[in-house]
Amino acid sequence: MEPEHNLNNKITAKEVRLVGDNIEQGVYPTAVAIKMAEEMELDLIEISGNAVPPVCRIFDYRKFLYEQKKKQKELKAKQSNVVVKEIRFGPNTDDHDFEFKLKHAKAFLKEGSKVRAYVQFKGRAIVYKDRGEILLTKFISELMELGLPEQMPKMDGKRMFVIITPKKK
Question: What does pTM read for this prediction?
């Protein structure tokens, strides 16, 4: 397996900038830096090969790789993938159904998911666009303490939709 960083004698630059603990930081000839690493029974690791002169560190390579993997794992754990839950209404949705779907939307927002609510118009029901808009506006106002709409309700074909993003805690 080829190491992903240049080590010891694989470093081709004439001089390197040394950084790290327990050493005098500065620019050294590469041969001197390698000799310093050997005296400490550690490796000279090229961290940034694009810099002039390249930045190197005297460190145990296996420990260095372990720490890098650990950092990447922490960064990956901090990432969050956004889940979008959909809630569908009809233009003539009555109060009980509205309350039922509202309860679900509140649960989705509390768990950190986005909610995409839409009114599906079928056939001639498209003439009741105002009902759909009133329904979604009411839905937004009921969820104001938990989330904010990304934009006001808008039409997309035979659907009028709004996306509600959870508020940050």
Answer: 0.51
**97-109 pLDDT, tens per residue?**
888 988 988 888 8
Domains in the chain: ranges and CATH? 8-76 (3.10.20.80), 84-166 (3.30.110.10)
At residue 14, φ and ψ (nearest 5 deg) are: -70, -40
Return all residues near 139 (Cβ < 8 A) that are at least 6 apart.
Answer: 89, 98, 102, 105, 117, 162
7-28 burial code (b ≥16 CB/10 A, e <16) = bbeebebebbbbeeeebeeeeb
Residue 83 CA to residue 32 CA, distance in Å, equals: 54
Using left for φ > 0, alpha for ψ between -120 and 50, and beta otherwise, residue 139 falls in alpha
Q: How many CA atoms lie within 13 A of 115 on its CB side?
A: 30
Taking alpha carbons only, the member of 79, 93, 96, 28 closest to residue 57 is 28
Burial string for 39-68 (b: 16+ CB within 10 Å, else e) reads: eeebbbbbbeeeeebbbbbbbeeeebeeee
- pLDDT, residue 3, reads 59
